[in-house]
Fold this sequence. Notes:
By secondary structure, the chain is of the alpha/beta class. It has helices spanning 14-18, 26-32, 53-65, 84-104, 121-141, 163-172, 182-188, 196-210, 212-216, 247-256, 271-286; strands at residues 6-9, 37-41, 69-73, 108-111, 114-115, 148-151, 159-160, 179-181, 219-222, 224-228, 231-236, 262-265.
Amino acid sequence: MANHPRFGPAGVPPLFRVLGARLSDVPGLLREEGLDAFEYQAVRWGQKPQMKQEDSEKLGAQARKNDVLLSLHGSYYVNLCGKKEVVEASKRRLIACATAADWMGAYVVVFHMGFYGRLEKSYAFRTCINALKDIIEAMNSLGIRKVKLGPETMGRVFQVGSLDEILTICEEVEQTQLVIDWSHLHARHQGRFRKADDFRMVVEEVERRLGTEAVRNMHCHFSKIEYTDKGERRHHILDEARYGPDFHMLAEVIAEFNMRPVIICETPLLDVDAVKMRDTLREIIEK
Ligand SMILES: [Zn+2]
């Protein structure tokens, strides 16, 4: 999606709010910081878009003007393998998110698929795939063809979203976008990324299954992360040396594979840490 690596925050940075910025001011302010991606947070949305079409379009126009690529993080209230009524409501929530993404020109709706619950894992997963196909069909019948659905790798072992599951979805379902949350994978597997090679193995697996283009155009989330034996516990800032993973190692692999990912910073510092990651990658590429 991006013609070069892009960096930006997950949501409106706290300082922008202090400054009294309107949503449509955000792309210009990010551009001033040298950032070029923004993930709008629709994480508490219900079954209808919770922003006006006019406001979405204003945000989109400013994003295009400032060359800031938009994505949208969909509702947390989604479980594609729960009870029938839960699945149906989840579908409507994601369609609402896709509708607003279409208005603003966001290229992907990132979302969490759900929880295995008492279901057998592979059965739960197949249920998710079927629901996803229904959602794409509904989006297409509404004329939403440019927006992709981006199920994300998840940080807790009871959540649907292992690397293998996400890759399988990208293989089987049209109009999907690979979303790798590196921190979630780190937490799900008790500290999986200890050296650059650990990142390289994931990239090679993606390349083997989805091809070079998918590797190059990966949508990523990154932050330092604390975990327990069940997985993800809390996000931390990049300077928190006690926690992994180390962005420098990932940046080496991004440079090596000539990737141009969209990297959304999910640390509590959002834009500040996004700038740090951008600079880390820049230093490696220019070396
Ligand atoms: Zn997420």
